[in-house]
Design goal:
By secondary structure, the protein is mainly alpha-helical. It has one domain (about 1-75). The protein contains 2 helices and 2 strands. Strands 1-2 form a two-stranded antiparallel sheet. Strand 1 (about 70) and strand 2 (about 75) form a beta hairpin. Helix 1 (about 1-30) packs across helix 2.
Length: about 80
């Protein structure tokens, strides 16, 4: 009976230690890297915006169509 109580107490102590370590680590991490997190988010959003431009450039979607009559540089295509 005493052995069971000691093992339960041991497990609870480890759980408490783990929770304290996680809280201490997460609060310190957010304080130190607030600017880094913002920069990472901005760079990620910028990359996602540039994917569409790159896709259109690769498939020539940003070029004028040669199948429809549109004025380009003074001439009719």
């Amino acid at each position: 009976m005493q052995h069971l109580q000691l093992s339960v107490l041991f497990v609870l102590a480890w759980c408490l230690l783990a929770v304290v370590a996680l809280v201490a680590t997460s609060s310190r991490h957010t304080d130190e890297s607030t600017n880094e997190g913002s920069r990472t988010l901005i760079y990620t959003e910028k990359d996602l915006r540039e994917i569409r431009q790159e896709w259109e450039r690769f498939w020539y979607l940003d070029s004028p169509s040669h199948l429809s009559p549109q004025r380009v540089r003074g001439g009719v295509i």
